[in-house]
Amino acid sequence: MAHAETGQLETSTGIDNRKLFMWLFLASECLFFGSLIAAYLLYRGQHDVPCLGGDLSACVFPTDRTINGVEYEGIFDIPFTSVSAFVLLMSSVSMVLALAAIQRGNIRAMRIWLFTTALLGALFVGGQAFEFTEFYREGLDLDTNLFGSTFFVLTGFHGAHVTVGVLVLLSMLVWSGRGKVQQKDSLNIELVGLYWHFVDVVWIVIFTLIYLIQP
Amino acid sequence: MTLADLRKRQGIEAPEADDGHGGDHGHPSAFEYARIGVILAIITAAEIALYYIDMSRNLLIVTLIVLSAIKFLFVVLWFMHLKFDNRLFSTMFAGGFVLALALFVIVFSTLGGKLV
Amino acid sequence: MATVAQPAGNPLAQALRDVRQLAEDKYSIWSWIATVDHKRIGVMYGVTAFIFFLLGGAEALLLRLQLSSPNATVLDPDQFNRLFTMHGTTMVFLVVMPLSAAFFNLLVPLMIGARDVAFPRLNSFSFWAFLGAGIFLNASFFIRGNIFNGDLGAPDGGWFGYSPLTSNEFSPGNGIDFWILGLLMLGVASLAGGFNFVVTILNMRAPGMTMLRMPLFVWMTLVTSLLIVFAMPVITVALFELLFDRLYNANFFNTEMGGSPLLWQHMFWLFGHPEVYILILPAMGIVSEILPTFSKKPLFGYPFVVFSGVAIGFMSWGVWVHHMYTTGLGTIATSAFGISTLLIGVPTGVKIFNWLGTMWGGSISLKAPLMFSAGFITMFTIGGLSGILHSMVPSDFQQQDTYFVVAHFHYVLFGGAIFALFAGAYYWFSKFTGKMLHDGLGQLHFWIMFIGFNLTFFPMHMSGLLGMPRRVYTYQEGLGFDIWNLLSTVGGFLIAASMLVFIFNVIYSLRKSEKADRDPWDGRTLEWSLPSPVPHYNFKEIPVVESRDAFWNEKYKEDEAGVVIPVVAGASDDEEEHDGHGIHMPSPSFFPLIAAAGLPVLATGLIYDPALVAVGAATTMIGVFGWAIEPATEGE
Question: Phi/psi at C32 (nearest 5 deg)?
Answer without folding.
Answer: -75, -40
